[in-house]
Known about the structure:
The chain starts with 9 loop residues before the first strand and ends in a 6-residue tail after the last helix. Helix 21 (535-554) packs across helix 23 (594-616). With 699 residues, it is of the alpha+beta class. The chain is built from 28 helices and 17 strands.
Amino acid sequence: MAIKGGWAGTILRVNLTTREITRESTEKYTYYIGGMGIGYKVMWDEVPAKTHPFSPENRIIFGAGPLTGTGAMCSGRTNITSLLASNPFHGVTDSHMGGHFAVEMKYAGYDAIVIYGKASSPVYLSVDNQDVKLVDASKYWGKGTFETISGITADMGGDGQVAAIGQAGENMVNLSNIRTGVSHSAGGHGGVMGSKNLKAIGVRGTGSVKIAADPLKWHELNKEAFGVVGANNQHVVPSTPQPWAEFHDPASRWTAKNGLYWGAAEYPIETGECPPGLPNKIGYRTMKAIKDLGPAAENYTVRMGGCASCPVRCHSHLYVPELEAYGVSPNVANTCVGFSGPRAVMGSFKIAGKSKAENDVIGRSMGSQIADDYGVWCNYAQMGRDFHWTLDHGYLEKNLPKEEFASLRLDLLEAGDPAFFQDFYRRIAFKEGELATLGEGAYYLAKKWNLPEAYWADDHNKLWTKLGYPVHHSNESNGVVGAVISSMFNRDAQCHTHQNLLGSGLPTPLMQEIAAEKWGVGAIDVPAEYTPANTAKAKFTKWSIVRNVLHDSLTLCNWMWPMTVSPVKERSYRGDTSLESKFFSLATGWNVQEATLDEHAERVFTLHRALTAKQMNSKNLRMDHDQLTGWQFDMDPDKKAFEAGTIKLDRDDYQKALTLFYKEMGWDEKTGVPTRATLEHLQLKDVADELDRLGLLTA
Length: 699
């Protein structure tokens, strides 16, 4: 179907080996939507099985969807697709970053940038609208991300956006990231850029993204969306009792209240009450610094920042003057695991003259700054847990040479001195010594250091599968629903669809009522009072994954979308799950209903599953991919699964949940491999034929 609006219309291709730069139409990829979908289609068509992530033949695709750049709410995401070095079978994965990079790429005229080959020496890609060239990056090689981003921004005239790697990516550390702006990063693919001698991509765009609809209709739809959006993670009730609110929940990220300030602003700004109906106050709802760093963070907060087209603003911008004593910039910006990852490394901090609460802000801020500058990815905080598990159980001392172990600054760790981060992250980023094995990921760590079964089976270590990735809204999130979601990807799931609803703050009976309307009775349970697998849970699981994939393809923020619930009592707290299709239809001119757009996303996810079967050479993904480490079934030995107060799973019930989910997806119920009938229904006949040729198509 011809492109009318939404898509920029062009995909940029860069062969680093030959320095050839070409362009192709986006049109052949539109049935895969954009972003993630474009990435998977390129990987299926162009990257052979058994390709190493650091091989020149691997692709890395920076993709955006048809809603990014249109001004649609919360549409500033960049989807990055490639093979993942920390995954033992080098599965296809996505990393994601917010900020303004994808919007700038669209303004320059591109829906995606596909990069392959390897440059003979360090370069960065300069994209200035239609002027695209490779530039010598030798002066930035060996530099951190902060200096690189600011330097290339200046090179390009002082505006534009830059995505860059630090020293960890240059040294092809498996757990390295790509960073853009002051606080946005995508974990896991930094080493792919490093392997290609690609230091950064700088993009400057002065164009626009056209929409097919009447701008007045677009304005009205955006206004409608503003009426159902909540705070960060679509939390729709405040964390404290407020006169306008029927409900409140202390866990909510809707933290705004009277007497809570951005305390380090030039003129301290009170967040105040932000009842629905005041669109200009949406950005005050999420004072996330106090959620990530505790109450003391109020006095360090300058403002809340975020991504293009986002009114919610979930990135805390802090001024932490104590960092200057360590030679670290006091201007800190981050969110969520960016702050919790360093805490997993050190645990607690002790700085003379500071309270315990202030120590936590200072220490975690310093850790986030150093890790981000080196471009080290914490693997959803697993790097810190791996460090402490091996330290506490004697495997660190056993595996490090005696001299190296003695040189570790464990004295700083024991003293709670955040200077420890400077030693720790440097060793990881530069692959200094045996300690750097922590940067290769849990699978390779366990293999090289011969870690025992107890490492995988420790419920406090939180490893989800022996593929080496950790929990990410898994069995604590509605039992088998979160468990199956976390088993479907090739790294931590990064799926927040289910968690946003479950954590919305609304009373469980009300959420159950809303869920029953969409997926059937029994889709949602009382937290830690989980019931066995059923069809409603399987439908909820499928919908959660499909919407996650849809958002990563459109590209919308899955921290905010979908709008399943709302903060508006007059709507009976119902949201509008058709908003994505409404925005898509107005932007592109394709009149697509909600169910049809979901099917487009289902095509994308089914292609992901086919890629996984191809890369694993597996005709039984149930056994080879979807199995857990065991602690999920053995935790809380004094309780049985389904008892109140535990998130413990039952082995047989988990297998039943997989079967029900496979059935909903149209996959072989024994093996979890997509069937030919499903692949052909989703217009993936070529994929079915290739799986059949490889002997992997089981039905």
